[in-house]
Amino acid sequence: MKEIAAGLSAPFPISSKICFNVLLCIADLSSLQQQMIISITDSQMLLPFASANISGIITDRRGKHKVLAHRAVRALICRAETERGLNRKHIIEGLKGSLQRMQLEYVDVVFANRPDSNTPMEEIVRAMTHVINQGMSMYWGTSRWSAMEIMEAYSVARQFNLIPPVCEQAEYHFFQRDKVETQLPELYHKIGVGVVSWSPLACGIITGKYENGVPESSRASMKPYQWLREKIMSEDGRKQQAKLKELAHIAEKLGCTLPQLAIAWCLRNEGVSSVLLGSSSPSQLTENLGAIQVIPKMTAGIASEVDHILENCPHSKKDYHH
Question: How far is Cα of residue 203 from the mean position of the Cα atoms in its chain?
């Protein structure tokens, strides 16, 4: 079953009240959407401003809705050597800290975010196996790993009778296709590693709001996102906006919005188990969830029309049908 994982996303710190309202909307809407799960992430990159509200929603509504809580262990940003990367100490202590903050006994998935060349693969896999055996997590996955690195983890797990990763978090959208469509399918077919894709709207580029430039209130107008502004205003960025205008006609034909088409397009890939959505408002969340109704309309013909417009369909050595 295809799933949409909805969570909170904001390019800047927001108040606990706004955070609570968006997450409450997520919880309420999930009761109406059978193919939706609530995604609660605890990452070192996230500020703790919403911890109490998040745990409150989980506590009050876990019995009514599907909740996916996951911990992202990062290979960057810490002080001491054992407080960063994917070494055993950091993985175990980091996950314990996450469970305390979210007031949970366990998370569904713990992700190893970015590979760590300074830690032996065996140590990483043994640490992940340990937290699963200790009941702190049900599964573990990778994020931004190459197919070769994922295969190495799988081989180490099989060699030492450990637990292999079950999924890879990968960026996937209209303008970022190569990894998910050419590198990961073989892992999906050979060892069953699924894809949890993120950024289906390419940091807002695919919403259409940058069609006439960068609005003052948009993410790309903020200083930390200068790289996004430059990307949008570049020659390639303007070409992308032109293609989005054409794709909007397909969306209109299907009776949906451009973001809904983009999300449904991601989910049509057989190797994609779930698409992560980041929403900064209840209205944005409601619109994006409409993609669920578009999935049945994503026929081979529609996919071919999209490919014709994008002109970036990667060619795999093997023919894996979507």
Answer: 12
Q: Once rounded to an integer, what is the mean pLDDT over residues 283-300?
A: 91
Contacts of 284 (CB under 8 A, 6+ apart): none
Cα distances (Å, whole numbers) of residue 314 to 179, 261, 310, 319 = 9, 20, 11, 11
Residue with tokens 């289906």: 200
Terminal Cα distance for the chain, rounded: 14
CB 78 within 8 A of CB 45: no
Q: Using an 8 Å Cβ cutoff, are 254 and 302 in contact?
A: yes
Least confident among 27-31, 134-138, 172-176 = 27-31
Residue 180 contacts by C-beta under 8 Å, 6 or more apart in sequence? 170, 172, 195, 197, 269, 271, 272
pLDDT at 11 over 70: no
Task: Tell me the Ramachandran region of residue 255: left when phi exceeds 0, alpha when psi lies from -120 to 50, beta otherwise.
Answer: left
Displacement of CA 318 from its chain's centroid (Å) = 26
Is residue 104's pLDDT more than 90?
no
Q: Identify the structural domains of the chain with CATH numbers, from first to last.
A: 3-204+264-282 (3.20.20.100)
State how far the Cα of 20 lies from the Cα of 245, in Å rounded to an integer.
35
pLDDT score for 225: 85
Nearest to 75 by CA among 42, 118, 39: 118
In this predicted model, what pLDDT tens digit does every residue of 27-68 receive, in sequence order? Answer: 455 444 544 455 555 554 443 334 434 444 444 444 444 445
Question: And the tokens for 17?
Answer: 């009240």
Pick from 168-182, 212-226, 242-256: least confident = 212-226
Tokens encoding 312: 């970036």
Helix (H/G/I), strand (E/B), else coil: 112: strand
Contact 90, 77 (CB under 8 A): no
**CB atoms closer than 10 angstroms to residue 147:** 16
What is the Cα 253 distance to its own chain's centre?
28
